[in-house]
């Protein structure tokens, strides 16, 4: 089997909702509505755009996250661009779908390399702007390696949380002894120290919470 991450530019209401923001939307379709998980400080802006496009029935929000139950299913407002192509080549679309930077990101499972190649070729021949972010063969499963990409295991961090944790790691914050202080991380990010520390703590909390059950 083969797993690929396809990035489709434009052509989607939810992709458009993330355009010009640093937010990410994850989508689970439930036929008569969609469940959306929106992350980033711009979640409120994205929520307003979703409400205008398909409606919002229920929502839970905090400063940089939102869980939305939409008023309608997105498929009631636009045709799905990728399902017919996948069906013709026996490929599977794995949820959740992801939207960011005005793009739709799809995780695809194909049974042969040829099926994946033919599906990609048909998409591009149809004028759909699609690129392959990654592709790998799944030959066998190691106990320490997930069968599919870790999108459902690694928690969704906001843009600032991701930036903080990456900056901390790259500058030696997690080395023993620490090679950098949170003052340096804040300076690299161009924000106040307390704000950087909050982003870092929130990121660390999400990462620990998502992995604690896997520890012996």
Describe this structure as you would to a colleague.
- This protein has 216 residues and is an alpha+beta fold.
- The protein is 35% helix and 26% strand.
- It contains seven helices and eight strands.
- The chain has helices at 13-18, 43-54, 83-88, 113-125, 159-170, 182-189, 193-211, and strands at residues 2-9, 24-29, 34-39, 56-61, 65-70, 92-100, 103-110, 130-137.
- Strands 4-5-3-2-6-7-1-8 form an eight-stranded antiparallel beta sheet.
- Helix 6 (182-189) crosses helix 7.
Main attributes of the structure:
8 strands; Arc Repressor Mutant, subunit A; 216 residues; alpha+beta; 26% strand; 2 domains
Poorly predicted segments: 149-153
Amino-to-carboxy terminus distance: 30 Å
pLDDT average, as an integer?
85
Order of helices and strands: EHEEHEEHEEHEHHH
Q: Assembly state here?
A: single chain
> Structural class, please?
alpha+beta
Biggest pleated-sheet summary: 8 strands, antiparallel
How many H/I helical runs? 7
| Fraction in beta strands | 25-35%
> Could you say how many structural domains there are in total?
2
The radius of gyration over CA amounts to 19 Å
Which term fits the overall shape? Answer: globular
Give the strand line-up of the largest sheet: 4-5-3-2-6-7-1-8
Share of residues in helices: 25-40%
Count of DSSP strands? 8
């Amino acid at each position: 089997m083969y797993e690929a991450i396809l990035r489709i530019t434009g052509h989607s209401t939810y992709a458009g909702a993330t355009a010009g923001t640093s937010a990410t939307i994850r989508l689970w379709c439930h036929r008569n509505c969609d469940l959306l998980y929106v992350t980033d400080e711009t979640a409120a802006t994205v929520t307003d755009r979703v409400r205008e496009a398909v409606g919002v029935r229920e929502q839970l929000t905090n400063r940089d996250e939102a869980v939305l139950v939409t008023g309608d299913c997105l498929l009631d407002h636009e045709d799905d661009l990728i399902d017919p192509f996948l069906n013709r080549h026996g490929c599977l679309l794995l949820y959740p779908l992801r939207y960011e930077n005005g793009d739709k990101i799809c995780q695809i499972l194909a049974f042969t390399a040829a099926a994946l190649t033919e599906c990609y070729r048909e998409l591009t021949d149809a004028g759909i702007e699609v690129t392959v972010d990654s592709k790998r063969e799944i030959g066998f499963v190691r106990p320490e390696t997930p069968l599919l990409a870790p999108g459902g295991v690694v928690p969704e961090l906001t843009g600032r949380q991701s930036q903080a944790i990456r900056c901390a790691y790259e500058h030696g914050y997690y080395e023993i002894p620490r090679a950098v202080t949170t003052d340096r991380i804040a300076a690299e990010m161009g924000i106040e120290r307390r704000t950087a520390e909050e982003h870092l703590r929130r990121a660390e909390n999400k990462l620990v919470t998502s992995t604690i059950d896997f520890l012996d």
